[in-house]
Design brief:
1 helix; two-stranded antiparallel sheet; three-stranded mixed beta sheet
C-alpha cells in the first residue's frame, strides 16, 4: 500500500474505488492516519486528463448488474 510511504498522493478514481481503499485501510492499518496530502480526484467515464505527463482516458467497463456511477467530479482530501 502506498499509504505506508506517508507522503502526498493524487489518486484518480471513482467513488467506489475510494470506498475500497478505505475498507482496505481500515482492515490492514486501522490505527494509521493518512498523510494530509492524499487527495481524491473524482473521475467521470469518458473523461480525459493528463496525469504525470501521460494522456489518460477513463473508460467504463461493464458490470454484472449494469450499475453506473455518474457522480459529479470534485477534488478533495481523501478521508477514511
Amino acid at each position: 500500500m502506498l499509504f505506508l510511504a506517508n507522503m502526498p498522493l493524487d489518486v484518480h478514481a471513482l467513488d467506489d474505488t475510494y470506498a475500497g481503499i478505505c475498507e482496505l485501510k481500515a482492515g490492514c492499518l486501522p490505527d494509521t492516519e493518512l498523510h494530509p496530502g492524499v487527495l481524491h480526484h473524482k473521475i467521470e467515464f469518458g473523461e480525459r486528463r493528463e496525469i504525470g505527463g501521460f494522456a489518460v482516458e477513463f473508460i467504463q467497463a461493464r458490470t454484472d448488474d449494469g450499475d453506473e456511477d455518474n457522480s459529479p467530479r470534485a477534488n478533495h482530501r481523501l478521508q477514511c
